[in-house]
């Protein structure tokens, strides 16, 4: 099956590795560990959030969703800066998400805030650099795919 123009397909596998010998015979009898794989890429060790008996040393789905939003925004932002003549020399984001448990649905991420600190070349247009975050958010594939607000609180600094 070929992809339609402008349509992209992504295939990953998730293999549960948490059978400790008795499967899911009881809520506490199994590990939440799994491995996320995609052809030609390193494996990602996954689990659930530690609040739900997960391994805190492994990535959980909530971490990965927030990381995806942050990375997508960053990639669009860097692209737009390159096109608009703003030279970014460093980019660091401390993204944060909030998940609220809901007995009827299990829970949901209710909001994510991106807090990128962007270092631009001395003399570049800091106002334009700040404005490009709005444009990046508009184009971000992941942000356009979620049903909760994604805010961006950028900080622009000049390289010394």
TrEMBL record:
This is OsmC family protein. It holds the Pfam family OsmC. Gene3D superfamilies: 3.30.300.20.
